[in-house]
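Continuing the series of single-chain predictions for the mutant panel. This is the parent chain; the variants come on the following pages.
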Amino acid sequence: MLLNVSYNNKEITQKIDSEVGKPYSLKERIQLGGIGSPRLVITETSIQIYNLLILDNNRNVCNIEMRPEGIIVGFRSLLESYALIIPYYKLSLYKGKAEEYSIHRDNYFIKIEAKAKDKSVHRFMNKLLEAKAQVSPPRIEDL
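Parent structure:
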């Protein structure tokens, strides 16, 4: 779900919390070693997100926040802040090209740049995959 989160609105906050859970506490953030990604450069997006990003001439960047049941991909366009809310059960993470990750939810996707020398992006994506694996139910083969 793609939402405008520029303004403090209780209805939008409740939607986000119901999809991906409430934010981690300070103690949990420290135990996880941080829940936010570094600044990520966007290389390609789905048409809905692209239509928002082309409204200004700034460099297209985003960040990812981990939540107990999913992630929030945040980006800005003009003076507005937008968030793509992705629960773990709908999250698909691909590493298609050598220097690119692709994050999918239903008909939305964002491809981000991940150069080989940028270790922090690779570490965060591995942390994201581990969190998704811990939350997902066991597979039939595992039973």
